[in-house]
Give the backbone structure.
Amino acid sequence: MEETLTGKELFRQIINQFGDRLPVIILIAALTVLAFLAIGILIGKAVQSAKTRQLIKTEREKAVKKSREILGGQFGEQIAPFLPNFPCNPGDCKFLGQPVDFIAFPGSAQGKPVDEVIFIEVKSGKSQLSEREKQIRSAIKNGRVRYIEYRLP
């Protein structure tokens, strides 16, 4: 039958067996734990740094792509009146840019009577109308458009 040792007895046995080498063993164990902790921290920092660099690279690429799309769209807006199938004569258009791209007065460039006013929004690719552009389109379609003559005071 095996004898069950109490904690104090077990501690005394360990001290008796290792004697004066016990502080060195504890120091080595502590240093080993600290070394593994330091290595873990360094590996964690390296992994996080790599993830951060990749995230920055990805976000920069997205920003450059978006910037090119915006610049391409702005360039397209400027030359749109001179492209095929534009809804009116380029001379009849006035570029606004915001909140709509063009306002056109068909016939005005040829000195003809202006029978209508056209609001033109230029889109490229898969771009959609913004909420503000949808609101403006709705106001125009529902006849909520006015002409005001403002006289300077």
Notes: The longest helix spans residues 22-79. Strands lie at 93-95, 102-104, 118-120. The chain has a mean pLDDT of 89. The first strand starts at residue 93 and ends at 95.
